[in-house]
Amino acid sequence: MNKKIIYLDYGATTPLFKEVYTEMEPYIMKYYGNGSSVYSFSEESKMAIDLARERVADAINCKKSEVFFTSGGTESDNWAIKGAAFANKKKGKHIITTQIEHPAVLKTCKYLKTVGFEVTYLPVDKYGIVDIDKFKASIKADTILVSIMYANNEIGSIQPIKEIGKILKDKDIIFHSDGVQAAGHLNIDVEEQYIDLLSISAHKFHGPKGSGALYIRKGVKIESFMHGGSQERSKRAGTENTPAIVGLGKAIELSKLNMKEEEQKLESYRKKLIDGLLTIPNTWLNGPDPSMSKRLPGNVNITFQGIDAEIILMHLDLKGICISVGSACSAGAMEPSHVLLALGLDKLSAKSSIRISMGFETTEEEVDFTIDVINEVVNKIRNK
Ligand code: PLP
Fold first, then answer.
1. What is the CATH number of the domain that holds 183?
2. Which sign does the torsion angle of CA 213, 219, 225, 229 carry?
3. Which residue, of 30, 35, 180, 318, is most buried by count of CB atoms within 10 Å of its CB?
4. 74 in ligand 1 pocket by Cβ < 6 Å?
């Protein structure tokens, strides 16, 4: 394919940073030693894994010994929720989460219900933010775990994490946050924000796919997810994927360095995109108003009333523009997004919504071009 691609789907995944690849490469071909072996050749792998752990710890303000490498966000979410639920089931069986979590959290909670846990799914307001009073009211005497995402992947809403964390700390309830969309883009501080378990995924911040981490606060009771060898201090068995771990470490270090610059740039592009698209009649923005500072800088989610978003996506694809729609394929049919329904949208409006997610390499020319193309496409569809 030679067509120029305008990639505006950074919420789905991000391109690898060149420096990340450069740092990973020797661990694919040259330093292939098993990080658990004792001879000196394996020292290279061991040291590289250790450096990556230090870089993750620096980025989220925790100790190196509290970082555990996984195969990505889905595994980290599964481990955090099942691991904490099973390890603390004698204390209680109640778990709180929200209606707008990623399926990695929602389906894990659904599974836990089948084995005797009780789950409360908190609603969100029209901006996609959890109401603190409703949250407080949902806590019960037997609540053992709360899982609330840091930032939402579809509408970019950022939750009041510190406030939630403080309430839970005072009640001695474990707080897990799915930080997959936030890590590398927002300033996460697990100490200041009272987070006990945090999931991150490298491919959302220019690292390799299939590489993630779970932060586990010292003292938090959690069962091992993978049973086998004694890797990751016997908590997550399996030979370490050294290149992927090295890539994650470098990517989080670079993302931290680029964060301020990326935020400023993306906030101005976001404004331009929203202003440009809302001039089209019968459109609206889903998720927080950017003036509330509660939205991921690169995220825009818009409904084009009366138009099937799939059709918009297909037209944009012909022009080389990559975006997402507010529906997902489930059992062969397109189902409206559960996140948009939780905001109060009806099914048809949810299916008329698109997500544009910009990132570090996005240019102003791409934003301008996309605004023009969408204007043209929507006009064409509506005037057919
Ligand atoms: N959680 C959120 C909020 C996500 O956006 C994603 C991926 O889209 C995941 C979890 C799953 O992460 P991974 O793709 O690394 O399994």
1. 3.40.640.10
2. positive
3. 180
4. yes
Tokens of 260: 């301020």
Q: Which of 62, 109, 322, 329 is catalytic?
A: 329
Chosen domain end from 230, 254, 278? 254
> DSSP alpha helices (H): ranges in 279-337?
309-318
- Bridge partners, 157 (sequence order): 295
Our mutation pick for probing the ligand 1 site, out of 204, 206, 248, 357, counting the most ligand atoms within 8 A of Cβ, is: 204
CATH code at position 339: 3.90.1150.10
To the query of whether residue 329 is one of the catalytic residues in this protein, the response is yes
- Separation of CA 70 and ligand 1 centre (Å): 13
Radius of gyration from C-alpha coordinates of the chain: 21
The residue whose C-alpha atom lies closest to atom 4 belonging to ligand 1 is: 180
What's the CA-to-centroid distance between 103 and ligand 1, angstroms? 8
Domain of 172? 18-254
User: What tens-digit pLDDT sequence spans the chain (384 residues)?
Assistant: 567 999 999 999 999 999 999 999 999 999 999 988 999 999 999 999 999 999 999 999 999 999 999 999 999 999 999 999 999 999 999 999 999 999 999 999 999 999 999 999 999 999 999 999 999 999 999 999 999 999 999 999 999 999 999 999 999 999 999 999 999 999 999 999 999 999 999 999 999 999 999 999 999 999 999 999 999 999 999 999 999 999 999 999 999 999 999 999 999 999 999 999 999 999 999 999 989 889 999 999 999 999 999 999 999 999 999 999 976 665 566 799 999 999 999 999 999 999 999 999 999 999 999 999 999 999 999 987
243 occurs within a structural domain: yes
Nearest Cα residue to atom 9 of ligand 1? 73
Nearest-atom number in ligand 1 for the CA of 152 is: 3
